[in-house]
Amino acid sequence: MITGQNTEVRHEERTFHVQTEDKGRSNPFVESLIYLGGQVLASARTSYAEMLADGHGEVEIAALMDRQHRTMIAAIQRGRFDEEVAALQARRHASEVGPSEVAPPPPSPVAQTDLSLDDLVLDYLQLREKGETLVLSMQDVPLAPGTESELVLRAVSSHDEVPIAKAGIDVKLICATEGPQSLGSGVTDAAGAARIQIRIPDTIQGAAALIVTASSAIGKAELKVLLA
């Protein structure tokens, strides 16, 4: 189990407490909670079971925790939970009204807002300036006709490198003598990563390249990799 993170965040003259922790490999989730005055306002839980299955370890899980923790902090600073705060204040005010005063019916209790990291990141990105774009990267790997390779890709936002989950990835081969060929596809996980197995045909003649495209809620990105 990886050591958690705790941060005090000031917003609109209030102090929020953000807590993010690893629930352990027997329950592979990263959980973030936002508190205000002891009340849980929101939570986000992200499974990393798929990351474990793909062979990722503590370094990648710790990176996921850090990104989720920073995203929650950014959401507070951008007013994502202002409505929950207003509802909590109304509830507390109603409970403090004296018996001689005529009080309106108390509002419903503040419900904990349970957010997936995907939802939270999308909210966060929608609040960013219009210059937000998708950035796609790939680890270097030898590519040549007649070989099999695993492409290791990562999709992030252009601001703060927030991971983009559920981005669709497509890999195509183009060459001078044939039309485009589809070699594989996949979807990024909670860490913005995708691993795609491809086999490059040995019948290629002339110049050729891989075209890797990613599509997400914040746009598209493309990589062009020339074959050796």
What does this protein look like?
β8 and β9 form a beta hairpin. Strands 1-2-3-4-5 form a five-stranded mixed β-sheet. A four-stranded antiparallel β-sheet has the order 9-8-11-12, with no helix packed on it. The protein has a three-stranded antiparallel β-sheet with strand order 6-7-10, with no helix packed on it. It contains four helices and twelve strands. It is of the alpha+beta class and 228 residues long. The longest helix has 20 residues, at 58-77. α2 packs across α4 (117-126). Helix content is 22%, strand content 40%. The chain is elongated, with a radius of gyration of 23 Å. The chain has two domains: 5-126, no CATH class; 134-226, Immunoglobulin-like. The two termini are 42 Å apart.
Radius of gyration: 23 Å
Contiguous runs where pLDDT drops below 50 for at least 5 residues: 100-114
Helix count, DSSP H or I runs of 4 or more residues: 4
The strand count comes to 12
How many angstroms does the end-to-end distance come to?
A: 42 Å
Tell me about the biggest sheet?
5 strands, mixed
| Approximate helicity band | 10-25%
Q: Helices and strands, in N-to-C order?
A: EEEEHHHEHEEEEEEE
Beta-strand portion reads: 35-45%
Q: How many discrete domains?
A: 2
As an assembly, this protein is single chain
Q: Kindly name the structural category.
A: alpha+beta
Mean pLDDT: 80
Reading side by side through the largest sheet, how are the strands ordered?
A: 1-2-3-4-5
Shape: elongated
